[in-house]
Amino acid sequence: MRQIVQVFDRGDSPVVPAQLPPVPRSFTSRQRELDRLARWRSESPVVVLHGVGGVGKTTLAVRFLQGLAGEFPDGTLFADLRAFSVDGPVSADDALEWLLTALGVRPDSMPVELAARTGLYRSLVAGKSLAVLIDNALSAAQVRPLLPGGSSIAVVTSRQRLAGLAMDGARFVEVDPMDLPASVELLAKVVDDDRTSAEPVAAQELARLCGGLPIAISVVGARLSSRPRRSLAREAATLREQRIAALTVDGEPSVQTLFDLSYRDLPPAAARLYRLCAVHPVGDFDLPAAAACAGLPLPDTENLLDVLLDANLLREVDDRTFGYHDLVRVHARDQLSATEHAAALRRVVEWYLDVLVSADLALHPLRRRTGPRYERPLALFHNDIEALAWLTAHRVTVRATFAEAVERGWDDLVWQYCEAYWGFFLHSRHYQAAIDMFRAGVLAAHRLADPLAEARLRLQLGYAHAKIGDQHAAVEQNTQAMQLAEAAGDQRILATAHSRLGRSARDSGRLTEAIAHYSRARDMQYAIGSARDVALCRRRIGQVLSQLGRHDEAVSELQAAASAFESLGDRTQHSRALMFLGLAALDSADPASATAPLTTALTLMRELGSTYFSAEILTALGDLAARTRDLSSARQAYTDAVSLYDQLSDPKAALVRAKLTSLQ
After folding, report:
1. Cα separation values, 637 from 47, 104, 601, 630, Å
2. What 8-state DSSP symbol labels residue 269?
3. Which residues contact 194 (CB under 8 A, 6 or more apart)?
4. Confidence of residue 391 (pLDDT cuts 50, 70, 90)
5. What is d(CA 185, CA 189) in angstroms, rounded to the nearest whole number?
6. Contact indicator for 172, 275 with CB cutoff of 8 Å
């Protein structure tokens, strides 16, 4: 639609342009952005409002400028540069012709050349106080000739960032989608009846489905206004099913059209990245994940991400972490072919598996693995601290990519995810999530007819069941793992199965049986030559000996295990052996001797950042303080342990709370 400027003949009186469109009566919220605009207004004559299409940049700009009407006695100018119109963007030549006409220049006096028009424009506005709204700009070059200078101001809106205008002293305000309360308020204003108050839950769902985009909310509100008998719940159901396609009203541009136009103007490589990153299983992703989606090198991906950021089709969550607006992500996915989608998803699922493998190796470098991904691992982490920090931050993403692998039936990836997740599980202890995950891994390995993989995952599943007190399920899984290992002749898995059955016997109070299982596992691991696994067995034997009251034997086993883990460089198991050494000392004639090993163990675990193991050691320190009647220290240690267990939703929190209560 062409912009039409009508100039009325007022004789010799100068024309005072007043071209700003009206602010919709439904304008809502935006106080934060208005405050920022007011601040920048005092610092710069040029302000750029940028954000995704439909987020309300133009309405915000008009609202801001109308609030300043008294400061610009020479009028207001408006130029829609139509950057994303189906007809294409307006040239600076044409835009200047509109502005000059509004300032009273007659057609027969209009300069032809761009430079001449720019010079005349600046001459006319010099000494005046004008507000100029430059709407829907495509580039800094398109905008620059329209900047008035002097005591006038220009507000520019664009889906691009227009960073080049920083050279002209511009300030930038990013316009974000509206929050849920403001979205509901806007919907109520647009619908203008009592339906939103009568159906508050449906109103919130509609607002949420519109993703905070005023244009989407306005489209939905317009549809409802034209259908006074239509319930909000029915409209929400329609929107749930169709999302973008439903956001349209006859005769008006749809949200689909807005995104289509932005997408159409992307370079082919950027358009491809826009599509492919939409397969990422969770909303936010970093640079390496984007590169994995597209199968591109990091430098190329980074350049293309900058293109998408400039187009406001992506938002920067923090330094080099990105995300789509909800509706933009739906649009991007709609552009994908089924083949593109499957290939990109497979790449990103494999990428996260490779990172998980790398993190697992950093956490437990000596543990035996069988997955083929361990044969050519990526070296992504310098130490176990870095690895655990990444796993903690990306836990939701790892689970989501695993779920995609399960849904797609990629059994070869599913079981390997489970094996690689083991190291993190030992620190995070999200039991139910791990049980669900390991169960899926067992089924995947079984379908692949890989008995060793199935046996290892059954051992993991059995361990998780044992930790939540389901000894029946634990024994069942460990016994099946033992049978698979015996059939395959794998002594390592067989030894581990004996060790896990020893744990079940210990937890059930059958301590002599537990020592028999652990001793058999130790002898098998010694024959195999696995020093780490021998040390694990000795640590477990020491725990049971301590329970039996055989203190000197327990200390001997635990000290040997701690020394072995320290020499092997296994920080986690060294710390755990020290913890159990301290626990053994608690029941000895000299409980104060527990202080040194427990304190060292806590230091190691805090350096690593392990929430679960730190909570275990704090509980032991609380027991030590309670035993020596240092109630203040006991209370603090128990409180800290409860806080950590609560973070993990671990049932041990209740046990430690009981200890706290007993101190009273």
Report:
1. 54, 79, 14, 11
2. H
3. none
4. very high
5. 6
6. no
